[in-house]
Amino acid sequence: MSEQSLVSTSAGQGPSVGQSESAVQATGEPPTPAVGPVGQRLRAAREARNMSLAEAAQVLKLGPRQVGALEDEDWTSLPGNTMIRGFVRNYARVLNLDSDELMRGLDAAQLQRTQQLEVSAGTTASLPPAGRRVERRDYFAIVAGLVLLALAALAYLYVPPDFWQSHLTALIGSKTAPSPVQPPLPEPAPVPAPVDEVTPGKPATGDSVTALTAPNARLLDAPAASPAAGGSLQLSFAQPARVQIRDGRGQIIFSELCPAGSQREIDGQPPFSLVVGNASQVTLRYRGKMIELLPRNRSGVARLTVE
Amino acid sequence: MFSFLRSYFSNDLAIDLGTANTLIYVRSKGIVLDEPSVVAIRTEGGPNSKKTIQAVGKAAKEMLGKAPGAITVIRPMKDGVIADFTVTEQMLKQFIKRVHDSRLLSPSPRIIICVPSGSTQVERRAIRESAIGAGASQVFLIEEPMAAAIGAGLPVSEPTGSMVVDIGGGTTEVGVISLGGMVYAGSVRVGGDKLDEAIMNYISRNYGMLIGENTAENIKKKIGSAFPGAEVREMEVSGINKAEGIPRKFTISSNEILEALTEPLNSVVSAVKSALEKTPPELGADIADKGMVLTGGGALLRDLDRLLMEETGLPVIVAEEPLTCVARGCGMALEKMDNLGSIFAAD
């Protein structure tokens, strides 16, 4: 192909590069459907220079396959839009063509741009960072634990030790309130002594004294010298002893260390629960009746309930 | 305290803080600022002696080599990293102020800023600190080759090797990228500045003439080339004759400039070759197929791509608008900042 034919070819193809379909039809030579204007121009210019595909590939440092793909406009076998544009620019420079015009041709071809940046995340799972072993979740657990500990410490310091016990007793007491005759505990455990003899002259109403913790207390005698309507406990101490008494509502009405030789009289609402230390040295009377305190354990503490 | 509020009113920025030029990309606006990284500082005497910033950017660059004693013209970036911390911070502050319209609140944007891949931890920390000092609420760093590859339109997130050579003012960065990360990153401290310096030295040595940096840059832009071409171009240059001490004019040809540039260009070529040597074979095959992309101002040097093609035997293409590739890449990263983890650099 001569130089002249090159000129005519490029002149003929010139308008078609500018993506105008009508211009192509006006020239009267519709382009081959498979190959667009860019490839055609490149091929024509190369052939005009009597350059083989291999020579062009050698200059462009591309494979002959790639140069062929450029001329055939087989964009899918070439590596991406950026590279294709670069290759075409380089090729145009080798062939002394106007690269801007070819770029416009490529714009018209609308190559798909590879502009997705995200590396597709296969999963959403993530490994814990190597440096930080403790995760946020763990912090919550730690903080929650610390708060619980603090609450426990506060409770230990500020809530009276018998708070729950008294409340529970009150609860049980309120449940059993409709039948005050019944002892708080279900079974009035086997009482060896004749319990019903307590008040021979009186009906067995709430006035009766029942030694619930049977081995601890035994009703000894019943002198009729205590007509008190409310409950009245009399304690006399031969030796110092500690006594704690709760009334029927579960509240502590008396709690102290009583010295030797002293006497105490406590009024309140029966039934009374008593905890008496050094029980062998304490004498207990209830409504004038003597109640024997049998120490249950070795330290001499007696627990009993008196109605 | 109200930083979250201020960041709500501030646009996020991507900054290409280069040795030669600083470009700022504003989210959803594009590149809004392209200025030389030059600051002119005036030192005032008298009782209240103080230093004030006389000019920043283009205005300051025009003063380069022409300023009186009271004005110092500084290029605060050297070899891609901060040489003068305070001045860099002030320069960034001025530039950020320029791109922000809001006057009510001082701007507190999130900033993506690029760093040379070969920079040390200390240098990165300095860049981060200066951006925070300039008012950034958060700073993310991105390595220059990654930003350049994104800006050039390479498929960085695909499992295929892409090689990018970014020749900036201070450094040349070579990166091989695959799956959103840098497989290889190399950096040599040769860039446009070194080329200018080489031209100044050559003319001083062979012509006995002294020329300034701006003149050397002009020579490089007009007749500089990296590969012997068919046509020889000439240019008239004026400088001061060292022997006579008198300004003279002389003519220099592109072949001479080619000779002057040989040494710094060889460093670039060897950096590229060593990157190719250290690239894993699978990615090397991709690069042999696709070649490498040149970005940065250095890519505009005539026939640099041909030099690299001849030296490596691989296809080399120059990216479109190579000067803004890094800034555009930073900007694209900015637009999708919230779902891009892997492309940002750790400290």
TrEMBL record, chain A:
SUPFAM superfamilies referenced in this protein's UniProt entry, alphabetically: lambda repressor-like DNA-binding domains (SSF47413)
Domain HTH cro/C1-type, first and last residues per copy: 41-102
Biased composition (Pro residues): 180-193
CDD domains, alphabetized: HTH_XRE (cd00093)
Segments of this protein annotated with the region Disordered: 1-38, 177-209
Membrane-spanning segments: 139-159
InterPro entries in alphabetical order: Bact_Cytoskel_RodZ, Cro/C1-type_HTH, Lambda_DNA-bd_dom_sf, RodZ-like_C
A GO molecular-function descriptor: DNA binding
UniProt entry keywords in alphabetical sequence: Membrane, Transmembrane, Transmembrane helix
Positions with biased composition (Polar residues): 1-25
PANTHER family per record: CYTOSKELETON PROTEIN RODZ, PTHR34475
Name of the protein in its database record: HTH cro/C1-type domain-containing protein
Organism: Candidatus Accumulibacter aalborgensis
TrEMBL record, chain B:
GO biological process, one term: cell morphogenesis
Cellular component annotations (GO), alphabetically ordered: cytoplasm
InterPro entries for this protein: ATPase_NBD, MreB, MreB_MamK-like
Domain of life: Bacteria
Cellular localisation: Cytoplasm
Leader peptide range in chain numbering: none
CDD domains: ASKHA_NBD_MreB-like (cd10225)
Transmembrane segments: none
Residues reported in the UniProt entry to bind ATP: T19, A20, N21, G169, G170, T171, E217, N218, I219, K220, G297, G298, A299, L300
Gene Ontology molecular function: ATP binding
Location (main, coarse): cytoplasm
Pfam family, one: MreB_Mbl
Keywords assigned by UniProt, alphabetized: ATP-binding, Cell shape, Cytoplasm, Nucleotide-binding
Gene3D superfamilies tied to this protein: 3.30.420.40
Stored NCBIfam families: mreB (TIGR00904), PRK13927.1 (NF010539)
Sequence similarity: Belongs to the FtsA/MreB family.
Function: Forms membrane-associated dynamic filaments that are essential for cell shape determination. Acts by regulating cell wall synthesis and cell elongation, and thus cell shape. A feedback loop between cell geometry and MreB localization may maintain elongated cell shape by targeting cell wall growth to regions of negative cell wall curvature.
Complex formation: Forms polymers.
Name recorded for this polypeptide: Cell shape-determining protein MreB
Organism: Candidatus Accumulibacter aalborgensis
